[in-house]
Amino acid sequence: MVSFPTPATLEPLRSVHTTNFPDLLNQLGISLAVSTYQAGKVVLIRADGETLNTHFRMLQKPMGLAVDETGKMAIGTSSHIWEFRNVPAVAPKLDSVGNHDACFLPRNIHVTGDIDIHEMAWGNEGLWFVNTRFSCLCTQDLDHSFVPRWRPPFVSAYAPDDRCHLNGLELVEGRPKYVTALGTTDTASGWRAHKAHGGILMDVTTNGVLAQGLSMPHSPRWYRNQLWVLESGNGNLSTVDLATGHVNPFVWLPGFTRGLDFYGPLAFVGLSQVRESAVFSDIPLTQRLTERICGVWVINIETGQTLAFLRFEDAVQEIFAVQVLPGMRFPELFVNENEFLKTSYVLPDAALAEVELSEVPLTEAEQCFQAARQAHQLGQLKVAAQHYQRGIDLAPQQMTARYQLGVILVDLHQWQAGTEQLTQVIEERPDHVEAHNSLGVAYLNLDNKEKAKWHFERAIALNSNFAPAYNNLRTLQQQ
Prior knowledge:
By secondary structure, the chain is an alpha+beta fold.
């Protein structure tokens, strides 16, 4: 059953953005993926008309993100590496409007144990990732939790004690090249004593320290023949002079800079508020700014000008990774079991050439759903409801069909029947924004204002840009 906490217990995931951010994404033909381990979510930032759609998927402490040009995505969590593949053929099936143009489906979940995975990148030998707890760079195989491939020369052994807080990773020509760490220490959490100015930038291929005395550096990136780094403790994006090792601040930003990607002349920089804790005390940023911002800033690297920004509020306070998704304007990411995973098959090309889809008959339930969609498009709501109900009786696990039935019942003013269907959808998919909103409408018309208010607020908490929920909540408050 669905429980109804008081509004004070909700964790709203609200955000605000500059008016030009959606148009910027549309012009570039991209979207963004952002990880926030503190809120336990991966956020897909997508243009939706004149607003940004911030689409959340729940994972356990997601940090590292890696996407390659073939459509592979990896996400490092508290003790796993999730691997996804973009399956474009699924995208048109996700909604009747045809907004989606990409869909990431999970292909593999690798158990690493709690190794505090930080940055990740796809290379010539597969996926590389920073194993911060064991102070090393790793790859993976089926037989082991992780395969250590490199560690800083000042770290004497592998041990799960985070000796130098190795965190950032950049590959050049498919091989690890640059890393950042918060110290050169060889004792458990030894880096903490000098975190304000003990950070380093290293060349993996030479074991040499390129720059030192940095304030909590993260996210080294080689872009346009220039090495970039985020000196997070100062809140800046900097360039590195490889000849001298001098780090030159390029732009100062209003938060703890962590998470960096580029597209064209633009840098997309993640900002975190940083907690008032021992980890972040006494760093230059907290002395420079009493209030820090969490969000994504867009910087023109040719001028240093801030072009746009997205600011998270309330529940999202920290960002780890920012990843551009080229050529994907409105992607989806599935992490939980659902009907699309059950009925989406990815085969090798040779096998796919021998698949005879035309001879695969629709099940009786699928025939019902097809008839329901056709009736719905013709405005025949009662007929559509009958077909959906028949299909659900045959295939009760089909939550998308159940949601459509619930919406139609609400449109028919069959409020109680609508709540019964939509409640089952919420129990199976608690992050279904539209179902929460429709359920709120049904409860409002049943004069159950408490439940209506809860579902409208929950829809807003899940998607701060979902205008129908705001409008419905305003209607409720005016009654």
